[in-house]
Amino acid sequence: MEPKLLMGNEACAEGALAAGIRFFAGYPITPSNEIGEILSSRLPAIGGKFIQMEDEIGSMAAIIGGSIGGLKSMTATSGPGFSLMQENIGFAAMAEIPCLVVNVMRAGPSTGMPTLPSQGDVMQARWGTHGDHPSIVLCPSSVREVFDLTVTSVNFAEKYRMPVILLMDEVIGHLREKVTLPQPESIQIIDRPRPTCPPEWYKPYEDSKTGVPPMAAFGDGYRYHITGLTHDIMGFPTTRKDEVEPLMQRLFRKISQAFEEIMLYDRFLMEDATTAVIAYGCVVRSAKSAVLQLRREGMKVGLLKLTTLWPFPRIAVESLPEQVQDLIVPEMNMGQIYREVVRVNQGRCRVRKISRIDGELMTPQEIIFGIKRRERK
Amino acid sequence: MAQQYDIRLAGLGGQGLILAGIIMAEAAGIYDGKLVAQTQAYGAAARGGFSRSDVVISDEEINYPKAAELDLLLAMSQDAYDENYQFLKPDGILIVDSTHVSQTADAQVYSIPFTRIAREKLGRENVANIVALGAVTQIFPHISESAMEKAVLGRVPKQFLELNKKAFQAGIDAAKTGYSDFLFSLLVVVVRPDLHAFSL
Asked: What does pTM read for this prediction?
């Protein structure tokens, strides 16, 4: 493929099309607009559907419907819209409806600063909807990675039958870079499991080894019940302990037994590092600059880039305190992933956060300053 | 060390600076074959608020994607100049649209009235960004004129191709001839006396 100058949001739309998304419902909001804008012309051209809904509550409901109808479905929004989607994200988690929700983070709370970046929705992406539920949240830090992770998100949604959140930020969403997209044939695409049994034998929420029951599309001839209420294996409401507990356990087990596949991360100059910077999203870019500059000064600093934010990739963080003395967590919030690092660290080494919350991208100098201040002690 | 150039285009919303940044990134990245990162920051208003577009050009992977120490600053409004000139490197190049920027502290400044050229020579103020891009190719040596022209023509709507070609050329001419406000004013007085009030 020819190299192109692509924006993060454009790469997201391209990735969605490549992953097989054929239904988009959404409501415009800065800084995620370009995703819907592009899909509004590209989807109908290939036989897909685009619909602008009355708001984000309706958008989320529509993509759940689209997915139950059998199409890979997605929506894209930013903070205020993401808040409105939470109720139906919970419905998708409970009814096990595969779908992709892209949240391009802007500065909040509330309407905040629509055109400026932040990473304030990390915890909301995990716990925004009520009730105990697992979630998958991925976070890109370059335009090419936006494309790749959009495909991965759709694949995870389909494979595990659940809503997956692609958590971008304004910097990455609006960043343009020269990228070469992969050949379509080289992209791995996963489709949801579908029932092969006769319709009268179909048990829509039956457990199996993977914990992911096959999903029939409405109209395929498999008649079944879908509800947000806690349900039995036939999809009908239940409060029987011997039916509730297995359902809840299965919802968690289908993710926990695949942690190794879902927890994505990268290590950069970590082999001999005695200080590790843990970053994600746009801050990875500043952190990498900072690490390279400190290496030139002879300091042994490395970078752990978190690609999966939820489930928190503890397998990458757990062993770090045996190797390093300092963990530095720069974030564009008051320390949402920092607290997770503190939890996993269990008091074994020093953990420090660097926060920036004024709507500007954290600079490499701020990270360097933060690391050196620690060193002096 | 990798050669890296940090460029900032700053001005008001509606002046087309974000498009100018995209064109510049495309020229350097796609047509000149370098690595590029282009970012932007703008106010919520469609016109009149602040607007800035950063372009980073490098031979190596670009990490921090914003422009930090500027090798080139194009300021299209007085506010944009006031806010950003502090980030200019000592040997950085400063270009201002003298239509809107009248006070500059820097001795070394390329002062060209892009907006006025667009208005008076081309009849449309909104091609001032393209005029500026033409001038940049003559002053800033790290993006070639041919690459920039291809990028301009590749990004503008078809029905305005001719207009943008002319605007780009007008920018090149203005930079080459050391566009003088004074000479331009005299010219206007002689050729279009009706526009005299604007030109002064």
From this structure: 0.93
Architecture of domain A266-376: 3-Layer(aba) Sandwich (3.40)
Please judge whether B64 and A178 are an interchain contact, meaning their C-beta atoms are less than 8 angstroms apart.
Answer: no
CATH class assigned to A4-186: alpha beta
- B199 has a pLDDT exceeding 70: no
Min distance B64 CA to chain A CA atoms (Å): 5
Chain A CB contacts of B35 below 8 Å: 177-178
In chain B, the residue whose alpha carbon lies closest to the alpha carbon of A171 is B39
- At residue A291, the 3 state secondary structure works out as helix
- pLDDT tens, position by position, A261-280: 999 999 999 999 999 999 99
Coil, strand or helix: which one is A267?
Answer: strand
For A198, the enclosing helix (H) or strand (E) is none
Write the burial class of residue A198 (CB in 10 Å: 0-12 exposed, 13-18 middle, 19+ buried). Answer: exposed
* Cα A178 from Cα B30, distance rounded (Å): 7
List, in order, residues 6 or more apart from A263 with CB less than 8 Å away: A308, A311, A313, A314, A315, A316
Measured between CB atoms, which of A3, A115, A285 is closest to B63?
Answer: A285
Who's near A19: CB < 8 A, 6+ residues apart?
A72, A150, A151, A153, A154, A155, A187, A189
Q: Are B50 and B80 in contact (CB under 8 A)?
A: yes
Interface residues on B facing A, Cβ-Cβ cutoff 8 A:
22, 25-26, 29-30, 35-44, 62-66, 68
The interface predicted TM-score of the complex, written ipTM, equals 0.91
Q: Render pLDDT for B55-103 as a digit per residue (tens, 0 to 9).
A: 999 999 999 999 999 999 999 999 999 999 999 999 999 999 999 999 8
Give the span between the Cα atoms of A281 and A171, in whole angstroms. 9
Closest CA to A306 of A298, A317, A297, A295: A317
* Residues of chain B positioned with their CB less than 8 A from the CB of A277: none
What residue spans define the domains of chain A?
Answer: 4-186, 266-376
What are chain B's domains?
4-199 (3.40.920.10)
